[in-house]
Automatic annotation (TrEMBL):
This is 3-oxoacyl-[acyl-carrier-protein] reductase MabA. It comes from the Bacteria. It is found in: Secreted, Cell wall. Keywords: Cell wall, Oxidoreductase, Secreted. InterPro entries: KR_dom (IPR057326), NAD(P)-bd_dom_sf (IPR036291), Sc_DH/Rdtase_CS (IPR020904), SDR (IPR050259), SDR_fam (IPR002347). It catalyses: a (3R)-hydroxyacyl-[ACP] + NADP(+) = a 3-oxoacyl-[ACP] + NADPH + H(+). NCBIfam families: PRK05653.1-3, PRK07231.1, PRK12826.1-2. GO terms for molecular function: 3-oxoacyl-[acyl-carrier-protein] reductase (NADPH) activity. SUPFAM superfamilies: NAD(P)-binding Rossmann-fold domains. The gene is fabG. Its main location: secreted. PANTHER family: 3-OXOACYL-(ACYL-CARRIER-PROTEIN) REDUCTASE, 3-OXOACYL-[ACYL-CARRIER-PROTEIN] REDUCTASE FABG. Pfam families: adh_short_C2.
Length: 246
């Protein structure tokens, strides 16, 4: 028996990276998953890798558009059944100092991370509350706790996700819907490994465990929050950082 046997999940930003690892973990634990992303090539590849459309279905989804998010949930319920889990993972970066950052770069990051998470949380909660059960997991970041140089847009968005999570959790707890968040630290992905070595070493120096995290270690915590193992938890924010910035 898997921890998510019979559950239907939507994971945004699931075509690659941490989102794909979350989807992979969910499938392994018995869920059927809609992979919501805007990268068609990677999405099709992920669908095939996870077992095909009978288990994992790729759907093109720009999380900034509430109607498109609703349509992704419709696909999940039409193809697999009632929605049980929703993970708001989609994201992007447009790093720059505040002096050099364009308004468009600020707006785009806020729209994808924060508005996208709000769109997903609202859509999922509306379905789940009618059935009296469901788990929503929002992916924040340690950047939303401490603020990172060159990331006024990203840090603001990720901090906003924490507030969104707590407010939404209070609104829907009485309906049996749980809303929690995860704040990853430095995780080994192609994006982070492309950092200049100097920046990588600076970040590593802040981690008591002495290493970067792996996507699977984030996915395991998301699985915990999505499953009944966390049945008495809502509005919580779990840091998965190797002890960084305690």
């Amino acid at each position: 028996m898997g921890l998510l046997d019979g559950r239907v999940a939507v994971v945004t930003g699931a075509a690659q990276g941490i989102g794909l690892e979350i989807a992979r973990t969910f499938v392994r634990e018995g869920a059927r998953v809609v992979l919501a992303d805007v990268n068609d090539d990677a999405g099709a590849k992920a669908e095939a890798e996870l077992g095909g459309a009978g288990v994992a279905r790729y759907v093109r989804c720009d999380v900034r558009d509430s109607a498109v998010v609703e349509a992704a949930v419709d696909v999940a319920e039409d193809v697999f059944g009632p929605l049980g889990v929703f993970v708001n993972n989609a994201g992007m970066t447009r790093d720059s100092t505040m002096r050099k950052m364009s308004e468009q770069d600020f707006d785009d990051v806020i729209a994808v991370h924060l508005k996208g998470a709000w769109n997903g949380t609202r859509s999922a909660a509306n379905r789940m509350r009618e059935r009296g059960a469901g788990a929503i997991v929002n992916i924040s970041s340690i950047s939303g706790k401490v603020g990172m140089l060159g990331q006024t847009n990203y840090s603001a968005a990720k901090a906003g996700i924490v507030g969104l999570t707590k407010a939404a959790a209070k609104e829907v707890a009485f309906k049996g819907v749980r809303v929690n968040a995860v704040q990853p630290g430095l995780v080994r992905t192609p994006m982070t490994e492309a950092m200049p070595e100097r920046i990588w070493e600076q970040k590593m120096a802040d981690i008591p465990m002495g290493r970067a995290g792996e996507p699977s270690e984030i996915a395991s915590v998301v699985l915990f929050l999505a499953s009944d193992l966390s049945s008495y938890m809502t509005g919580t924010v779990l840091e998965v950082t190797g002890g960084r910035l305690m």
